Amino acid sequence: MRKTNGLPAGTASFTRMPLGGGGFSTGIQFANDGTYVHQEDVYGAYIKGPSATSHTQLFTSASLPAADVVPLRPSQGSLTDGEGCYACAIAPSDATRIYATWNASIYKSANGGTSFSKLTGGPYTTLANTGGQRLFHNRMIVDPQNPNVFMFGPQQGNIIYSTDGSTLSSLTVSAGTTNYPHLVAVDPSSSVVGSIKQKWAYSIAGTGIYQSTNGPGGTYSLLSGSPTNPCSMIYDAAGNLWAVDGTTYQVYKKTPAGSFAATSLTVGSQAWCTVAVNPQNTNQVVVMDQNGAIVTSADGGTTWTDRWYPNGYGGGIYAYSTSILWMGKSKTAQIFPSQLAFHPTNGKLYCANGIGVTVANSVPAYGSPWWWYEETLGDESVETDWILCPPGGNAIVAVRDKGFFPLVSEDSTRRLNIQYFPRAGSTLEHGWHCDYVPGAPTHIVGCCSYNNNAHGYSLDGGITWTQFTGNHPDGGIVYGGCIIPASDNDLYWFPANNARAAQSHDQGATWSLISEFSLMSAGAETGFGFSMWNQMRPACSDKATGDVYCWNYGPSAFPALKGIWKRAYGTSTFVRQCTSIAGSGVAGSQARLICVPGNSGHLFFHGDWDTALLRSTDGGQTWPSVANTSGVVAVACGKAAPGKTYPAIYMLGYLSSVWGLYRSDDNCASWTFLGANPGSYAGWINSLAASQDVYGKVYLGTDQSGGFIGTYNSAFSVT
To answer: Does 357 lie in the same domain as 393?
Structure first.
C-alpha cells in the first residue's frame, strides 16, 4: 500500500511498554453491571468490564474522529492543560453509554467506547491537570435510569445538560472560584417524570450547592447550610446528599426532607477529601483524608470510628500488587486518593488515586487489617520523559514521578519491571534523562529529582544506582534537562528550570559551573531550558570519541550564547561551532540534539515542532536540512538495516506534508512510512529511541500515557 505522499508503508507490530499504572486517576463511576470508567489527569480515560482482566483506553486514534487526533487536533489554548480527561461518566442502566471530555469538548459513545462522536457545543474550560481541584468529583453524571440524560459541570462556565444524549443545553450560573469545577449529582431515589429523574444538584465554588426538584433543566435553589466549597458531592441510594468541604474539610449530610448539617466527624488536622456510601446499605459510610486514612460509620454518619490507615502503615496507604511488580516493591506504590466509590452490588470499595485504581474486598471493623489491592493492569498513564537504548543492554525509561525503569522484561501481558532511584529510600522522584558512557554502555548516568538532588549513576545497566555524593552548585532549582557523560568521571550537566550548566570530573563527587555558560546569576534564563516540564534535551556525547556537544538557544540577556558548542574530549573548554541553526531561534521546549552512533561528528537536531530535521556531518559547523521534512518532534538512530552500515534513522514529524513516524535505511536519502499514530495513540509522542541490537525495533514514549514498542522489520509491499 502507499500513503498519500507515495512512500511505501512498513508493516508494524506494536506492544505496550510494560510499565503500568498512573498517572493520577481523578474520578471513578460504575454502571449497574459492575463496569466502571475512570479518568486520568494526564491522558484520556479507561473502562473495565465486570469480567475483564485489564483496563482499556477509551481515547485512541481508532475511537476518536480523525479531526480530533494528533496532529489535526486543534489547540484549545488556556481551556485545556494537556491531554487529560477532565470528566468521564457511564450510564448506570447501560454500560455501553459513556460521556467524556476530550480537548475541551464533550464526546459520546454508544458502544462501550469503541467509537466516540463529538457533541455540538463548547469548547469548555476543562483543566484536567491543574491544582488539587482536579480531584474534585463528580464533574459529570448520568441519570441512573435513562442513558440519554446527563449533566456536566465545567470550570467556571455554565452548567451543561442533555435530555436526549445529543443536544446540549445550558444553565446560566455564576463562575465561582477561578478554575474550580462545578460538581454535579443526581438523586437515584427521586421521582421520574417523562423518563427523567427530577432531583439534581450542582455546586458553585465559593457559594454552595443548588438543587432542582423538577429535572436537570428545572429551577435551582441554594440549599440552606450547604458547604461553600465542596470537593466531593454525591447522593446516596436513599436520597441523602453528602458533601465534603474542600476548604474546611468538614463532612456534611442533607436528608431528603432536611437541610444540610455538619456531621459529628472531627476535622482537626485531617483533610477529609472524599465520601462514599454503600448502595446496598446506606448506613455504611466511608470517608478518606488526603493521606489515605479513613473513618467509617455504620449508622449513616451519626457516629464515626477513629481515624486509621487500613493496612497499618502510617503516613500513607499502599497497594498490594501481583500484576504490576513495581507497585509491590517495598511500599513504593504509595497512593493519594481522589475518589472512593462502592461497587453497586458486592460491597467492594474502590479508590481512584495516584497510581490508578485500587480495591478493598470489604470494609472491616475499626482496627482490623485491610489491604488495598491494585486493579490497574492495562492502565498506562505514567509520563515517559526519555528512553535510552544502550547497545547490548536493556532499554531504560526515565519516568516522571517514578524514576528509572530498565526494561528487563518486555512482556506486554505482565508488568514485571521495577523502578529504581539513585537516592536510597526514594518513593517519588522525577526521572528526567539518562545516557551511557562512551565505550562502557552498562555505565549509565541519570538526572532524577523531586525537591532535591537525587541524581546518580549505575554500573550495571540501570539495575542498581549510586547517588552522586556532590550537589549541583545551584542546589534546589536543579530539575529536568540532561546529564551527558564523556567518561565515567567526566560528566556535563545541562539542567532545565534555569539552573546553570555544570561539570564534574570525579564521577559526581564535586561539581563546578561551566564558565562558558554561567554568565548569568542563578535562576536567570540560561538558554538550556526555562522549565523542568520542557522536553528539551539539548546535549549529547559522541560515543566514538567522548566529545560533548550542546545547543544553546541564546537567552535574551545573553544572545551571544546562541549556537552549537563542542567540548573535545580531553580539553577544558567548550568552543562554539556555529552561531545559528535555521528555525531554532525559539526557546525550544521540544528541541533535541543527538549524536549518530559510530559516526564521529555526525549529529541530528530538531527544534520546537517548528523545524525541519537538521543534520551535521562536520561536528556541528554546518546544518543542512533533510529534504521534505518539517514539524519534527523526535529523532533516533538504531541498528543498520541488513546489508547497510549507516544506522537506521527514525523521525516523527512531517515528510512531504504527511504526518507520521518514518524510517530511513539509506542515510536519509529515502524514507519508509511506519504509521501516523503508532499504537493507536491519539496524542503527542515526546520521546523516541531505537534498538542498537535489533534492526527495526523502536521505542516510543508519550508525555501522558506510558509508551510503545514497535517492530518494523517485516517486509512491506508496494502497489
So the answer is: no
